[in-house]
Amino acid sequence: MAEILSDTEISENTGRPTRPSLTQVKAVIDFMQKHPVMAHKKLRYGMSHEKFKKLWIELSNMANSMNGAMKSTKGWIKFWSDKRRSIMLKQKQISEGKIKDKLTPLEQKILSISSSDKSTRRNRLKQDPSNGDNDYLDDLFNGNDDEVDPTRLQPTDADEKHMSVMEKMAEVMDQQAVAMTQMAQATLNNSKAMERIADASHKQALAVDRLANIFETINTSVYDVRNAIMSIDYTLKRCYSTTAMQQRQNTNLFS
User: 133: helix, coil or strand?
Assistant: First the structure.
């Protein structure tokens, strides 16, 4: 018959980690799936208290035989209760939209094991999850079978503080989101203003270019007028010289 592993029987010098390994967690979940009565008092009808304790002892010995944490039977019960509590709290926050996350496949298995049916699951999500470990452990190993209820949920100060911190963090994140939105809007407005300035500068450059073309055209026209005047002057001078010479010749003929 398997023996109960107490906390005093677990050496502090084993060198093993305090957190269960992934292999141990999977083994605990598989064992719970095979023995769902360990998660629900309502499913324990027809099972003796000794049988219930024996299952937990068997699970503890199996988990301790694997690489990972070394815990007493009470320690493994507390691990399961805390794990279930944290997952139900996480699911509650997800359902209320307080966090944007989703359960992992292992967490979904634990939540499924912790909910005997859909109505039980909905009722639990409306409560503040808590472990209720002290009463659960004492009842389990003191023989008070009628009081054992691993699914009992009671709010704790730690849960309330945790929820308060989460709410404050969510509020701060909302404020940061608003500030980021305002900053993005200001950046967009600044970008539009810079775009308008660039457009105005482009139009000004086009106007200057057109003005330069006008001055160039005027300069060309002035040059053409100058050449025309010089050509007229040259023509007049030639005509005047020819006429003067003819007059002189005529004068010489009649003298």
Answer: helix
Q: Which long-range contacts (CB under 8 A, 24 or more apart) does 105-110 make?
A: 106/25, 106/26, 106/29, 109/29, 109/33, 110/29, 110/32, 110/83, 110/84
What would the pLDDT profile of 99-131 be if each residue is shown by its tens digit?
Answer: 888 888 888 888 888 775 444 444 444 444 444
Locate 143 and state its tokens: 């023989």
**CA-CA distance, 57 to 126, in Å (whole number)?**
32
Contact 170, 74 (CB under 8 A): no
Nearest CA to 56 out of 83, 82, 86, 28 is that of: 28
99-106 own/partner pairs: CB under 8 Å, 24+ apart: 99/166, 99/170, 106/25, 106/26, 106/29
Six-digit token pair at 161? Answer: 């503080």
Nearest of 100, 101, 102, 166 to residue 128 by alpha carbon = 166
pTM for the model stands at 0.45
Q: Tell me, what's the pLDDT at 146?
A: 38
Q: What is the pLDDT of residues 30-63, one digit of tens each?
A: 998 888 877 765 555 566 778 888 888 999 999 9
Please tell me whether residue 130 adopts helix, strand or coil conformation.
Answer: coil
In sequence order, which residues have a C-beta less than 8 Å from that of residue 188 and are 6 or more positions away? none
CA pair distance 56, 83, nearest whole angstrom: 16
**Residue 4 CB-half CA count within 13 A:** 14
